[in-house]
Amino acid sequence: MNINTLQDSTHGTWAHYVEVAIPLTVLTIWIIVGLHSNQVNRDEGHGSLLYRFQWPIRSVKDLMKRNRKTEGKAFEGVV
Description:
The protein is mainly α. The protein has one domain (3-70). Helices cover 58% and strands 0% of the residues. It has helices spanning 3-6, 14-35, 49-52, 55-70. The radius of gyration is 22 Å and the shape is elongated. It starts with a helix and ends in a 9-residue tail after the last helix.
């Protein structure tokens, strides 16, 4: 992105661009995933915006649970 061609008096750099672009991209992904609905029949409370926007926390917790369950079972049945 050549900022100087847009306006000659700017002092923008790639660092400024990245400082703005990455947080906005992360925020956009978080909102899109939070608002995405893939369940037809949701339980009560699971459809609220607060619950849906907590998806990163729930995802990390689910991964941690899965890792605990599979810990030690990776080599089961191997001779």
